[in-house]
Design a protein that fits this description.
Layout: E1 3-7, E2 10-12, E3 18-25, E4 34-39, E5 45-51, E6 58-60, E7 68-73, E8 78-83, E9 92-98, E10 115-116, E11 120-124
Length: about 130
């Protein structure tokens, strides 16, 4: 079992930055692929970024490449999403997620993730 708690969301002006954190508990953290997803009102939950267990492999949806960076600190049991040059279309609830199996390749589909946080709201507006 893995429990996830996100933090760091808020209101920011266009062009601003936020860093989301996802604190994990559970015996198996450190070997799971982790991901960030977003969900805007009335829309599906969409992939944003993923990172493998060591942090050596990452991938992003095209719309955030060059602006967002996913990272992890296994010693602190935390995954981060650094978001720069935020745009109004980035407004959504952001969720942290973990796959159940240990190791393995990056995952892009929300159905591949077994554990989810409660979400943190990010609002980009002037």
């Amino acid at each position: 079992q893995v429990q996830l708690v996100e933090s760091g969301g808020g209101l920011v002006q266009p062009g601003g930055s936020l860093r989301l954190s996802c604190a994990a508990s559970g015996r198996t953290f450190g070997r799971n692929v982790m991901g960030w997803f977003l969900q805007a009102p009335g829309k599906e939950r969409d992939f944003v970024a993923a990172i493998n267990w060591s942090g050596g492999f990452t991938d992003y949806v095209d719309s955030v490449k060059g602006r967002f960076t996913i990272s992890r600190d296994n010693a602190r049991r935390t995954v981060y999403l650094q978001m720069n040059d935020l745009k109004p279309e980035d407004t959504a609830v952001y969720y942290c997620a973990a796959v159940r199996e240990l190791g393995g390749p990056l995952k892009y589909d929300s159905t591949a993730y077994a554990y989810w946080g409660q979400g943190t709201q990010v609002t980009v507006s002037s």
